[in-house]
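Sample A.
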Amino acid sequence: MGTAGLSRWMLRLLRGAVRTWEVCVEAEERRQLLQRPWEESVLHWSWQGDTWVLHGRYPPPDDCWRYGTTSWGWCQGRSDLPGPRDQA
């Protein structure tokens, strides 16, 4: 294995580690959302199929916190659908 082969191998290893970390963070965010079911009633955008859809009925508080979804757009009200990165 030459230098180029070793570089490609290291890059694949790094990409795999980053992807694993992202999936673990997403799983933790989903777990936390399932512990806060009342957030489903706060207005939020959720990924559905190939587009973003607005869910909820109450405006969110003015505290810059993301309510009702994970960073990938998963919403417990639409738990049957994967987030946008889940299709990769």
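Sample B, a different protein:
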Amino acid sequence: MTEKTTYMDANFTKLEETPSALDVSSVVKKYDRSSNQRIWTGLPSQVITLLCAAFSLYCIYVTMFSTAIPEVRLNIFIALVVVIGYLHYPIRRNNFDENDDENDTRFHISFGLNTKSHINTIPWYDIVLMFMGVVPLVYFAINAESIIQLALKVTSPRNPDYYQMISLAIMALLSLMELCRRCVGIPILCVVGALLIYALCSVRFGKVVYDLFYSTGDGLRSTPIDVCAKYIVVFIIFGAFLERTGISAFFIDLANIIAGASAGGPAKVAVISSALCGMVSGSSVGNTVTTGSITIPMMKKAGYRPEFAGAVEAASSTGGQIMPPIMGAAAFLMAEYMGVPYIQVAVLAILPAVLYFAGIYVSVHLEAKKLGLKGISRENLPKFRELLPRMYLLAPLVVLVSLVSANVFTMQFSATVSIGVAILVGIINKDQRISVKKFIEALEAGGKSTITVAVACAMAGLVAGCITTTGLASELIAMVVHLSAGYVLPALVLTMICCIILGMGVPTTANYCIMAAVCAPILTSPAIGIPIICAHFFVFYFGIVADITPPVALAAYAGSAIAKAPPMRTAFNATKIAIAAFIVPYIFAFNPALLFSNVEPIVQIENASPFVIQCLQIMEIALICITSFIGIFGVAAALNGYLFFHIKPLFRVILALGGLCMMVPGITTDLIGLFVLVSICTMQHFQKKKMLSDSQDIDEAEALASR
């Protein structure tokens, strides 16, 4: 029996028993491969902690001040990632020897073939794999200028060093792929492997090796790893410092104040807190476990079914990846791929994210009404006046958004300044004050978190490189256009399926890179004609929802483990709750105004002034938001089967169709959908009143009969 801890609110009132740190750790290790790390204690642990901290400081320095060419800067970055990666990730997951002496703090190298992991021990083959990755990368960095001058001749059979150059490239790629298997997972490796085989079968061997390893702009050192080293790593370190300021607890308390007392309050708290915490995190599974360890037990105690409680947390935490400003660090990649400023990407994401969480909020509200659930009593909730003195915890986020919005400073500079503000906030916060130890721990956490993202970005670069080298993108476009007969809706559906399959079990950043390389060009092709911004948001959304879409729904499985519910049932519930994520992308694909793009005035007025046109455009956006929200409400009610009371199957179908009509652009469809929704809501309302009246008459008759 594991020890349990109890969650307390601001008044130190017991709300619900929550899983212990051991329970949470076991869930994370089961569903988040990046958490399965080698165990170091004593002096080796201190040395590796300092190494990770130094790596974080090095990354901040390079991204701020380095003028080195990409071939030098990126190769050294990847080499350091390989070193730290193999120091932390063993060959097998959850395979530790229970007989190890925990008091032994010496460093060991094992020379056997045993794959069990031991405390303070690294096997000889991991050292070999580490050097296989580091030596070629460092060699390339040292000889970068001569290799660049040789260009394609590097991998030409006529080159005297042909076998050496080919061997170095193969060694580095194999080392990185093995590290990817350990810390990211097999799904993305399967995609890379399949594309590599296709590339080797259709393109000259030397050309493939050159494009994937020696070329800059394609392959290993393409946009994903460049953006990771330049922007993402600094924001990961910022997130590590922000977590140590105690902002997660602040978000949960704020969510409790906003929605805790309403019907089914704990579920609404989960939706709001997960949205807020997810803004600065890059892991759906990590978000699910972090906030779910508190909110899921609260939801179960309130009366929600375990599978529903786990599904709400999984859907909400996954939605954190599409919540501005950081969006799981993918916003920086989106800005690079679309060629627009980062702040524009963050602004474009606001309305779709609000609609997504509104859909989840409606689902949990209707479920609460259906089950007759109450909220948490106000006596057991934090008071806003007690939260006000902690508002300074938001300072790092406010500074970050302000600096980036000003469009004067670089993103690296903005993130670095925000890190400094987070440190100051941590020093001020007497409850969770940042000490020297916590400062180093934050740098260490940032360095360790970078490994998974960097390796995933490296693999995404290989995917993009293979597609570019083989010309596969044009073949995929031709195939989808042929299958869809040039119609937009079938093309969107086919692209959605492709995104969900390719996104299964892949981290947010790598997920988007793969989507941008494989799926986005399909939608932006002249035959389909979706605007580039809409296409990239479309593929990003459907890549993310793979985390809650069966069969590989890692976030949902993590939620089910905490809720002690059937995993597959939890995954299907999460898909149903997050229905907005499957609808909103279609809305902005057909109507870019939802992304503030190509906005037409609500009515056309000849010779109107620019101010009037702008007002009419704002009215058009407002109308789209209102109709979309009403439509999502209708679809959510239809899937839940409850409005004022249970809805019959036929009316559920009609209600769903009415909701979909509200989301299809056009006055006619809006009016049809509105008529259907208002009719069913009115009918339900009067039937509910009649049922209550009949029930009251029966009660009065029984009372008279008993006299």
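Observation for Sample B: The two ends are 56 Å apart (CA to CA).
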